[in-house]
């Protein structure tokens, strides 16, 4: 597959599955052998595992906006730098809904084989999220 095709798969995945919560497209985008390698998230596999993770974020921050700030592809890998924004309307990391707008940045590496995402490595600013919802104090500025 071409690098441009792989980039299109990632764009479509984030637009349809992540932003619009169209979880039926996970069968189309996610390999049955998909593995989530994201630190701090459950070790889940396949389209059902991807649905669980997407539902977790949709329940906590429904109707998110995801901006792909950078998108780079090489071989079977696509890397993105993203900004994710949503309103904290559901429990998030043990914190009851606050109604606060939450915005965080992150990066993700996706392996794509035969038009399906097989592996995800996603890193995001969890400390910043916790600060925004009042679960972690904001450290004092250093002089």
Task: Tell me about this structure.
Helices cover 30% and strands 35% of the residues. It has one domain (3-132): Roll (Nuclear Transport Factor 2, Chain: A), CATH 3.10.450.50. The termini are far apart. It is an alpha+beta fold and 143 residues long.
Comma- or semicolon-separated keywords:
Nuclear Transport Factor 2, Chain: A, alpha+beta, 143 residues, 5-stranded mixed beta sheet, 4 helices
Short recap of the structure:
With 143 residues, the protein is of the alpha+beta class.
Which helices and strands appear, and what pairs or packs with what?
Layout: H1 3-19, H2 26-29, E1 30-36, H3 46-60, E2 65-74, E3 77-87, E4 101-113, E5 116-124, H4 126-132
Rg, Cα atoms, Å: 16 Å
Q: Which CATH architecture?
A: Roll
Range of strand content? 25-35%
SSE order, one letter for each helix or strand: HHEHEEEEH
Tell me how many strands there are: 5
Distance between the termini: 51 Å
Query: Which consecutive residue ranges, at least 5 long each, have pLDDT under 50?
Result: none
Q: Mean of the pLDDT scores? A: 93
* Number of helical elements: 4
């Amino acid at each position: 597959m071409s690098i441009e095709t792989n980039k299109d798969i990632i764009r479509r995945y984030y637009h349809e599955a992540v932003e619009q919560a169209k979880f039926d497209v996970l069968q189309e985008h996610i390999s049955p052998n998909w593995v989530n390698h994201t630190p701090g998230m459950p070790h889940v596999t396949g389209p059902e595992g991807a649905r669980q993770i997407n539902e977790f974020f949709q329940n906590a921050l429904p109707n998110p906006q995801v901006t792909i700030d950078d998108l780079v592809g090489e071989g079977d890998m696509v890397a993105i730098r993203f900004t994710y924004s949503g309103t904290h309307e559901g429990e998030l990391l043990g914190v009851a809904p606050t109604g606060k707008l939450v915005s965080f940045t992150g990066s993700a590496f996706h392996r794509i084989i035969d038009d399906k995402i097989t592996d995800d490595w996603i890193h995001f600013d969890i400390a910043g999220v916790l600060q925004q919802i009042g679960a972690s104090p904001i450290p004092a500025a250093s002089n």
